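Predict the 3D structure for this chain.
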Amino acid sequence: MIPGLLQTGDHAQAVFTSRVPRFHEEEIAQKVAARMERQHILHRKAPPTSSFVLSEGLVRTRLGGREVWREQLRHLLRRTDIPGLTIQIMPFDRPTHGSLTGPFVLRTTGPVDLAWFKSSYSGEEGGNCLEVAYDWYKSS
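Done. Predicted structure below.
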């Protein structure tokens, strides 16, 4: 899934509408509004430095239909103009990468680097793939 901070409202709507079991319409509207509100963090006076690596499949999947998909791609391109924000697309033919067990977040705060992940294999949270994720991040 394209990260919420990078989604358009229509794409977020399609994400929440596609959920099984289905959300109620008012719940979908609340979730989309909350997601759009969180995006203001990218426009603060001192926005966080953020780097997103998206699988090629995410930008090829036409979630919400052709027009929603096209606007989402244009939105991703516009987001690359935000200072401190980087978006990279990982091609299908990449044989291996640091997030094979699931997505992770790496936060750098001064002298400390922290990684958070949720394993798609075990459902556990923690750091047993910290070295792999960190090595991948530093080498990219």
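The longest strand covers residues 112-118.
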